[in-house]
Amino acid sequence: HAVQVEGPLRLDGRLDEPAWRRAPVHRLARQRTPTPGGPVTQTTTFRVVATRDAIYLGIRCDQTVPLVARRTRRDRAVESDRVTVDIDSRGRGKDAFHFEVTAGGTLVDGIRYNDTTIDLQWDGVWWAEVQRDAKGWTAEIEIPFRILRRPPKARPMRIQVRRYVSRLGETDEWAPTPRDGSREVSRYAPLEGIEFRARRLVADLYPYFSVGVALDTGDQVAASLVRRYGGNLKLRIGTDATVDATVLPDFGNVEADTAVFNLTTAELRFPEKRPFFQEGVDVLTTPLSVFYSRRIGSLSGTTAGNAVDAPPPAPVLGAAKLLWRVGKRGTLGALVAETGAQDVAVRSVDDGLTAPQRVLPYFTYALARGQIDLPNAGYVGLMAGGRVSFDRGPKDPWTVCPDLQAPERGSCFADAYFASADTLIRSRDGRYRAQGQVVGTLRWGGTPLAQIDGNVVRSGDMGGAARVRLEKAGGRMIGWIDYTWLGRDAEWNATGFLPVPHRHRLRAHLGWQTLSPHGAFLEERWQYEWVQRFNLDGLSMFEGYQLNHRAKWKSFWRHFVELHVRPRRWDDREARDGTPVERAGNVGLELELTSDHRRKVVWDLVSTTQVRTTGGAATYGWRTEVESSLDVIPSGPIQLRLGVNGTYDTGEFRWVETDPTDGVRRFARLRALALGALLRANYTVSPSLELQLYTQLLGAGTRYLDGHAVPMANTRVRLGALRPDPTFSPVRESEALWVMNLFLRWRFAPGSNLYVVLTRNQTDPTVPGGDGGLDLSQLGRMAASYLFLVKVVHRFAL
User: Contact at 8 Å (CB) between 60 and 125?
Assistant: First the structure.
């Protein structure tokens, strides 16, 4: 129950105003962890007050154990005492807004959707203050109505309040929810006494201006002045429609991706870090990733032929996004974005002519998704979209396209379209789920797209895909079975993420979990997994059997251990032309270990070790990957993370080249070694002022030795058919990488920020003359790009 008052409250972390004394007091009574349903050990009370413009929550946390009051930058997880509030403002029992405040004053927010899924990428403008005393601490939270959503004549709001006590590892909650993940928002308790007064039109304008210096080093040092300006607009229309728009967005303050040493033939997926594209994930996400926002502005699928210099990523000129809750059951999401063109110098193969060529056109990305709610947080959704270019043929004086092929249908750049339907059906208790999706794709224009599995997608080709998943998500016994079919011409990498196409994939998991304390554990789970993948010609591309165990100990240490067996298989991507190549089987052990996360020093280890047979000579190869990090928190506002990682791979035959002159495909034993280190340091001076340093070093060396060959006439390459090749010359390559990001943010007003950014990126990680070993000695002389930038963003609430 909330009490309605006139006028705003003073936000200072003290519940000493008359309005708070009028509000009913509510008490958390039950644990969620570590003993589900058990009585709380610490007293927590909360009150709710509403004004014309906002909801206020006052949460009092009495404490009989030492308080952990750490703070860090906004939206970053930190081990600390904290309180969380989830508000289902629509009253649908399906989605909610998530607000979190640590005892140190750090704010975290996000959204919950489909009852049990949470995403912390959403950002809202809200405030909180905390006060600590000898008996505990108090959090005072203000949540403006302008960031909540509530259609007319909706059901009563619903609320969840939780408190986490770090020293005890205890979470207490207001509305009891099951630990097995089967239900969440649908179990929240009604919140009464709120008069929701949303304005018909609310707008927040965020113009920005940035100025800085860019410095490129290498053979020639060149400095340039950088000036950028643009802005974002967030517009709320009525009670439940939001429009976000951006013009010339600047992502200079975004943390760099972690560099990864990838020896596979599949693309790796990286998280989206650009603020504009982070919101709306609940509406635009589907089981098959037909939309992957990092495609917008990337060079994926673009071939520059004999480009003299690699083109930079395409700038995003503008974008707009609509999120609209239609009626009581409908949801509509739409996105449109425009990226700029890129021209680079390209050298002709025939006459050596070098002239500018358009290697990346102006692209328009557009997609829309509609969704109708079903009972028990299910839904049925339809989605369609694509990527369109209005650039046509080669740029004069060229007669061929950037990939040196002739254009089809008068265009060098293909348009790509997709349409999709998906559904989620859940049982009333949330324990049983069925999810499925079908997708159709069309490629139009452009040059033929030759994929490394030998398949070629041409203009006019249509493809299809489907996925179905049946799952038991709650209770002691859990499990799921998942089947995916990816058609031969299915291709949505222009807008989505499809790393390994043209497959049948079947996965089955069966597990047994205990989520209450027993023996030496607070909780544990055993799980058996089986995975099988076939290509569309029926060859086994992967087969795996694995048994794993994960547990949280009463000491609060965690472990995960897995034994897996993977028989020999075929790989139609290894030779880059679709020829199936036999790959060695392996037996492996995976181990993850994390120390007590409540301490000031936390250590974790992740390792994988595999032993495999490499061929007819009965020799063995092995691969090991190790990653370890040490988190140190010397004081509340300071967090340090030091990480090291290494990869060693030896003995396996890998493809090196296909030589039509000699009529052979050449393979060699791979020997690869990579070592890396990273440092992340955060100093949060206050909730509004933070400093972050991120830097990473990575050195890698690859050598291909002991060359073997097989005739090109062989339609399949078996390991036993490889024969020594005396003409083979070993291939060696070394790489070195150093990236750095120094980032200061000052929130000088709600939603308004000053950024100071210094970054260093490696222009080309290849070490000149590298012999395949680790060589960091030339790192200071290798080409790099530096950027120093000052950026101001100011929020105007309209």
Answer: no
Which residue blocks in 723-794 are alpha helix, DSSP H?
none
Q: How far is CA 640 from CA 73, 80, 632, 633, 738, in A?
A: 13, 15, 5, 6, 19
Tokens 């392996």 appear where? 586
Burial level of 543, CB count in 10 A (0-12/13-18/19+)? middle
Are 447 and 405 within 8 A, CB to CB? yes
CA distance 343 to 156: 56
Q: Are 503 and 455 in contact (CB under 8 A)?
A: no
Let me know: does 464 contact 490? Beta carbons within 8 Å: yes
Report mean pLDDT in 10-residue bins for the chain, 798 residues.
Answer: 90 93 95 94 96 94 94 86 96 93 93 91 89 96 90 87 96 94 92 81 90 86 88 86 89 71 88 81 90 83 57 85 87 94 77 78 94 94 94 79 81 93 94 97 92 92 97 94 96 93 96 95 96 95 96 97 95 94 94 95 96 64 94 90 96 93 94 95 90 94 94 93 93 93 90 92 87 85 90 91
pLDDT at position 565 is 95
Backbone dihedral region of 174: left (phi > 0), alpha (psi from -120 to 50 degrees) or beta? alpha
Q: What's the per-residue H, E or C state across 244-280?
A: EEEECCCCCCCCCCCCCCCCCCCCCCCCCCCHHHHCC
- CA 111, CA 320: separation in Å to the nearest integer? 20
Distance (Å, rounded) from C-alpha 242 to C-alpha 326?
Answer: 12
Give the count of alpha carbons within 13 A of 537, CB side only: 12
Find the angle CA(122)-CA(125)-CA(131) to the nearest 5 degrees: 110
State pTM to two decimals.
Answer: 0.91
The two beta strands, 456-457 and 241-247, are: unpaired
Look at residue 106 and give its three-state secondary structure.
coil
